[in-house]
């Protein structure tokens, strides 16, 4: 063999085979995870000498893909890589030319619902893997998605349900009805992580959906799995002092939260001083909670939105639930009025602590004085849902609820030759709401919801005093009452237009009539031998009119960037004074590799309503009042940013977020202004307007799967206010300032029957103003003067310069459930405040004259509360 042939053979062995050409049968191996298509092309060129030619203006190769191809023919490998993205490939010479396939499009629309009940599912995901595009169902279970003509199927998924593949070829113009099966009914269908990860990109920024699983993770205190308790356990949210029942979000006051029940505002959201919420958990379908990036469709409050949607009622068959415990009982029934056409759901709850008063709150002193007290609540819901046609549906719902507290005192009852004296005081407060909704589908891309609703909150108190000496005929009979009310009547229309997968436009408008009756007082003296004196004052009402318009666009700017851009504008007319505002909203999410994402938002909010609080605690006696010519509307501007992470198996989620919020025209009673005898008619002369600011950071780690679930949330925050003439005009910690707040929630499933839950909350002490000294009073005859030689406290020091001790509480519950042939029975055992921590409800300064000392006394009202509840579901 010649030397030339030997050298040629060595060269043939040493050179890579790909330089001698390739064809469609060339076997290739490509393994990449979450990398751009451009990198896939680069790998094929490097390993096999296959060159690609394309125009970046026509073909987008920035989309990320996970490829796991082993030893496949080149043509089949390229089909698997490029077909899902509508990219055509063709060999021209020694290179492959890439072009985009332009397909005609069509729109698929319809509803997603539960297969058993027909209940529409809110926030279900509809996703096209081929186009890497998707959408979610709106608040009424409706979706619309525009697809390429050759799309053959979609994936439909919802938390707690088995994902389903929906065939869409040949669907035509009619709407589709997608039914999903709960996971506990059938074996779960496995869907690849990449599909789930991409489908989650359609979730709205700034929105936290409180799912039924989140609610069930909370302890079922007094037998209730409460949605508001789950919201309070989130970072950035606190629930007020034990027994306060308030909702404070990112340093805001309770009146700055918009709480909606089927679209109707609720002005007081708790029963029994915060132990229960007004939302019966048996009929709650979904809860959306916003504390940052508020969509433009919401307005009227500064701090948060809680949007509660109720069940529509079972369209297939009748069933219900009933429970009875130591403190309260409840029942719920739902079913079809006309199968697959009309449904209803009705529920009711009532506590019966008033029926147990002899054992709970009654006492008799040694000298015969009797003290009696009882408190109870009730509420009821009714909702009717009717389908007129494929395009039209109507919903009607009503709610009524009330709390009542009665205090009775009698002295001299068992004694001879003495006076008989009785005092009776009654407090009652509650809500009424009514909602009428009409859903109409104009075409597959345009959905409309027209709503009319009415809401009322009222507070009523009366007292009677009777004094009757045994030896004389003279008697004293006094009667007084106080009544306040807040009413809203709303009409609005909301439209949703989805031209394509990258845009969802929402726009609409409405009008609101606010009626304020901040206080009506009446006093009567019916003493014997005297003519009855009847004095009433403050009976006037103030009417304010509000109009609003909004528009927002949920826009997928890039494959990794999604934004919500909106504008809310409104005007308010009251007492010949008009206020108008423009409120821009912006939220954005940028997705990073490995399921990391960045979020940011800016929100401007306006609030025309104010809540006058009479002291350091929030109570039903607080007054709703409007902005006036003297008191301007409140404004807030909030910026927030954060980083979020979901593990590949979706087992854990992590979030870290910071925020800064400025509030203008917040109000406070003037320094040293007495609340007693302050006439509601001139309340705006008694207040001062100022500025507030709150800022901080929130961190949360949640475990979402497995038999052990729960989350840990921590908040570091500051909340401050500044008012002219108060605290020297400088910022001071406001009463909602809680420097540290830690929440731990745990849910453990034991076998088939037991479900254990626990939550522990720790919070820093609250700011408190204390006197810096005292002096002897000298009478001057004024209405608010003190008698001579009585020590008067000096409150001239700095506002809220002290803090109470830290507060913490543990709540636990255990539920045993067993399925029978026709029903499911369960026992729930719970402990509220399990280790009987005495957290303060309010504070009293006590003077010990013997020791010549003065000290601060903390009054607690909610000790350890055990409960046992038996329930059946049929």
From TrEMBL:
Q: Which stretches make up the TonB-dependent receptor plug domain?
A: 221-301
Q: Gene3D superfamilies attached here?
A: 3.55.50.30, Carboxypeptidase-like, regulatory domain (2.60.40.1120), TonB-dependent receptor, beta-barrel domain (2.40.170.20), TonB-dependent receptor, plug domain (2.170.130.10)
GO cellular component terms, A-Z: cell outer membrane
Predominant location = membrane
The entry's keywords: Cell outer membrane, Membrane, Receptor
Asked if Membrane is a keyword of the record, the answer is yes
Q: Which SUPFAM superfamilies match?
A: Carboxypeptidase regulatory domain-like, Porins
| Annotated protein name in UniProt | TonB-dependent receptor plug domain-containing protein
């Amino acid at each position: 063999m010649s030397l030339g042939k030997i050298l040629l053979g060595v060269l043939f062995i040493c050179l890579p085979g790909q330089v001698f050409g390739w064809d469609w049968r060339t076997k290739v191996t490509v393994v990449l995870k979450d990398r751009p298509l451009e990198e896939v092309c680069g790998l094929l060129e490097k390993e096999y000498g296959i060159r690609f030619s394309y125009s970046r203006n026509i073909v987008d190769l920035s989309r990320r893909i996970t490829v796991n191809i082993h030893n496949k023919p080149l043509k089949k490998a390229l089909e698997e890589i490029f077909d899902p993205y509508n990219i055509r490939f063709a060999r021209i010479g020694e290179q492959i030319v890439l072009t985009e396939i332009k397909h005609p499009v069509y729109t698929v629309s319809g509803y997603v619902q539960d297969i058993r009940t027909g209940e529409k599912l809110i926030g279900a995901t509809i996703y096209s893997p081929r186009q890497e595009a998707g959408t979610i169902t709106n608040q009424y279970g409706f979706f619309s998605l525009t697809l390429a003509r050759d799309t053959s199927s979609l994936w439909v998924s919802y938390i707690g349900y088995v994902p389903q593949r929906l065939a869409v070829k040949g669907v035509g113009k009619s709407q589709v009805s997608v039914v999903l099966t709960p996971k506990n009914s059938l074996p779960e269908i496995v869907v690849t992580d990449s599909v789930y990860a991409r489908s989650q990109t359609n979730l709205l920024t700034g929105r936290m959906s409180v799912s039924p699983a989140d609610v069930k993770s909370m302890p079922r205190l007094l037998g209730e799995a409460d949605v508001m308790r789950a919201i309070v356990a989130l970072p950035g949210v606190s629930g007020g002092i034990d027994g306060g029942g308030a909702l404070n979000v990112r340093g805001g006051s309770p009146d700055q939260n918009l709480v909606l029940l089927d679209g109707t505002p609720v002005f007081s959201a708790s029963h029994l001083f915060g132990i229960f919420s007004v939302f019966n958990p048996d009929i709650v379908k979904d809860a959306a909670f916003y504390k940052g990036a508020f969509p433009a469709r919401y307005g009227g409050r500064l701090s948060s939105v809680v949007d509660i949607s109720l069940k529509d009622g079972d369209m297939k068959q009748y069933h219900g639930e009933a429970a009875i415990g130591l403190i309260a009982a409840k029942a719920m029934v739902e079913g079809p009025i006309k199968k697959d056409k009309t449904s209803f759901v009705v529920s009711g709850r009532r506590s019966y602590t008033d029926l147990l008063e002899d054992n709970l709150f009654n006492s008799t002193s040694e000298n015969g004085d009797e003290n009696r007290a009882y408190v109870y609540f009730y509420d009821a819901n009714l909702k009717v849902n009717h389908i007129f046609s494929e395009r039209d549906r109507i919903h009607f719902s009503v709610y009524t609820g009330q709390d009542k507290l009665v205090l009775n005192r009698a002295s001299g009852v068992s004694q001879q030759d003495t006076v008989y004296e009785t005092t009776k005081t009654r407090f009652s407060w509650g809500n009424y709401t009514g909602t009428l909704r009409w859903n109409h589908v104009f075409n597959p891309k345009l959905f409309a919801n027209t709503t009319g609703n009415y809401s009322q909150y009222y507070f009523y108190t009366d007292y009677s005093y009777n004094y009757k000496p045994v030896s004389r005929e003279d008697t004293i009979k006094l009667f007084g009452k106080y009544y306040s009310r807040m009413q809203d009547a709303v009409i609005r229309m909301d439209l949703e237009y989805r031209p394509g997968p990258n845009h969802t436009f929402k726009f609409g408008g409405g009008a609101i009539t606010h009626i304020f009756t901040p206080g009506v007082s009446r006093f009567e003296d019916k003493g014997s031998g005297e003519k009855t004196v009847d004095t009433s004052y403050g009976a006037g009402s103030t009417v304010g009119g509000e109009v609003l318009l909004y528009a927002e666009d949920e826009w997928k700017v890039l494959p990794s960037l999604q934004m919500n851009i909106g504008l809310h504008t409104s005007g308010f007319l009251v007492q010949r004074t008009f206020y108008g505002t423009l409120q821009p909203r912006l939220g954005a999410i940028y997705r990073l590799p490995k399921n990391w994402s960045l979020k940011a938002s800016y929100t401007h909010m306006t609030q025309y309503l104010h809540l006058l609080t009479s002291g350091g605690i929030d109570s039903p006696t607080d007054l709703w009042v409007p902005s006036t010519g003297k008191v301007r509307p409140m404004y807030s501007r909030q910026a927030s940013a954060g980083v979020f992470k979901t593990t590949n198996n979706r087992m854990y989620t992590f979030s870290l977020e910071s925020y800064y919020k400025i509030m203008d025209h917040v109000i406070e009673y003037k320094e040293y202004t007495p609340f007693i005898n302050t006439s509601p008619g001139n309340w705006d002369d008694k207040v001062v307007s100022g500025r507030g600011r709150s800022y901080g950071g929130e961190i949360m780690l949640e475990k979402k799967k497995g038999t052990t679930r729960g989350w840990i949330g921590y908040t570091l925050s500051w909340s401050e206010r500044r008012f002219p003439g108060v605290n020297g005009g400088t910022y001071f910690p406001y009463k909602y300032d809680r420097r540290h707040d830690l929440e731990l929630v745990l849910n453990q499933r034991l076998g088939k029957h037991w479900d254990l839950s626990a939550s522990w909350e720790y919070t820093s002490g609250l700011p408190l103003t204390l006197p810096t000294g005292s002096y002897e009073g000298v009478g001057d005859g004024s209405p608010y003067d003190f008698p001579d030689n009585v020590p008067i406290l000096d409150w001239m020091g700095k506002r809220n310069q002290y803090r109470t001790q830290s507060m913490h509480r543990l709540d636990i519950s255990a539920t045993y459930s067993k399925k029978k042939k026709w029903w499911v029975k369960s026992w729930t055992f719970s402990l509220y405040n399990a280790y009987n921590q005495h957290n303060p409800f309010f504070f009293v300064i006590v003077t010990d004259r013997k020791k010549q000392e003065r000290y601060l006394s903390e009054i607690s009202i909610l000790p350890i509360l055990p409960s046992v509840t038996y329930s059946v579901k049929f």
